[in-house]
Amino acid sequence: MRTSILGVLVLAMASLVCTAATQRNKAGERTIIGYISDGMCGLDHKAMNMGEDKDCATRCADGGAKFAIADQVNKVVYFLDDAAQQKARELAGQKVRIRGRVDGKARTVFVTKMDPAK
């Protein structure tokens, strides 16, 4: 009987620890609304004179720049992690809503969700 109660308590504690870790990870995420750009042009594609924002971002990415999200409201650009690059290519130049963990030092978003925004 004592062993059964002890086993149940151990499982309950393990469950609480796992739940707390999951909530902490979710709490570290944020939502950013902006336009899919590239790390070279950032907030403004005009200087590159390559046409539409989509074309410019795609050409810069083909040249080695990473896709990024340009938050026009807060005037900040975050690079998108490697796993998000293909989805960003599909949405280049478009307004998007990105959810993910932001690494402020590396100016990178580790994307968990990316969708077109209105």
Strand order of the largest sheet: 1-2-3-5-4
Tell me which CATH architecture applies here.
Beta Barrel
Could you tell me the number of beta strands? 5
> If you compute it from the alpha carbons, what radius of gyration comes out, rounded to the nearest whole angstrom?
20 Å
Describe the protein:
The chain has three helices and five strands, in the order αβαββαββ. With 118 residues, it is of the alpha+beta class. The protein has a single domain (29-116), classed as Beta Barrel (OB fold (Dihydrolipoamide Acetyltransferase, E2P)), CATH 2.40.50. The protein has a five-stranded mixed β-barrel. The N and C termini lie far apart (59 Å).
Summed up:
The protein is α+β, with helices and mostly antiparallel strands and 118 residues long.
Spell out the blueprint of helices and strands.
Blueprint: H1 2-27, E1 29-38, H2 53-62, E2 67-71, E3 76-80, H3 85-90, E4 95-103, E5 108-116
Parallel strand pairs: 3-5
Antiparallel strand pairs: 1-2, 1-4, 2-3, 4-5
Descriptors:
OB fold (Dihydrolipoamide Acetyltransferase, E2P), 3 helices, 5-stranded mixed beta barrel, alpha+beta, 5 strands, about 120 residues
